[in-house]
Amino acid sequence: MGIKLDSQEESQIYRESIHQAGKVLVLRFIKPWLNSDFVFRILGYEKLLNKILQPIHSFTRKIIRQRNIKFMDNRDQQDCEIYDRREKHAMLDTLLLAEKNNQIDLEGIREEVDTFTFEGHDTTASAINMILFSLAENPDIQEKVYEEIMEIIQRKNGNSLEIFDYTNMTYTDRVIKESLRLYPPVPYISRELTEDQLINGYPAPTGTLVEAHIFDLHRDPQYFPDPERFDPDRFLPEQVEKRHPFAYLPFSAGPRNCIGQKFALLEIKTVIESILINFHLSPITQREDLVFVADLVLRTADPIKIKFTRRS
């Protein structure tokens, strides 16, 4: 977004508010009577949710306001088109430029910023958490990832890795995909039907809310034999070609797929590389101890514990 936060406290309040909002939304999801706007309102949940959303929207509006001041200080409206073509700039600048050209309003910008700030922090953290757990649980696979990383680092003669280097981590990429299969950060998604459908012989009219349970979809033995086994080779090109393209949906699919998936994967690889070149991971929490709880993002009831041993 091109903005540096004034204090850590701001982001802490934002994260806590996001978690509280998630609890209310999940509660509405699992209790059918709360789907009624009238019932949701008279039982006080609507007022509670609006109160929780206030600091969330204030946070994003502040980011937009601060960046807009810098944007207008640096560029007048006549320079916008030149600025857009010739220079690299923050994503928020692109939105502000669109607003100046009457392509989006300020509320639309807030919704886009909300999408990136909310979707981009908790989901990636959940993914990294479970990938580290998977690596700790599978030491042979962890060692292969480490060897691939070190091979690339040695080719660079100690220089910093660049984006191109991360795209060449083919085995690491398969490991990440397998972890996202078993532990998708977003375990389910909702879609509203825009036309009538027939699902398993049952009519589903336009406007029906459909829930796709990604967590269960990724464990379909028809597409993933022995689904609970961690096997990165499921994502070898020849294996992927055999599967239905929608059998694997960690970032959803189609026109409403995750807008930040490429950035998220680069972020994940950066963190994994930084950790593995310094530490060997060993499991403390066992897989049979994992208990997942209902939330907007995949979470465990108890913290996952991993032992970090510094590499010699």
Task: Provide an overview of this structure.
This protein has two domains: 95 residues, no CATH class; 174 residues, Cytochrome P450 (Cytochrome p450). The protein has 13 helices and eight strands. The strands form four sheets. The chain has a two-stranded antiparallel sheet with strand order 1-4. A two-stranded antiparallel sheet has the order 2-3. Strands 5-8 form a two-stranded antiparallel sheet. α5 runs antiparallel to α6. The chain is globular and about 60 Å long. It starts with 7 loop residues before the first helix and ends with a strand.
Descriptive labels:
two-stranded antiparallel sheet, 53% helix, 312 residues, mainly alpha, two-stranded antiparallel ribbon, Cytochrome p450
Task: Summarize this structure briefly.
The chain is mainly α and 312 residues long.
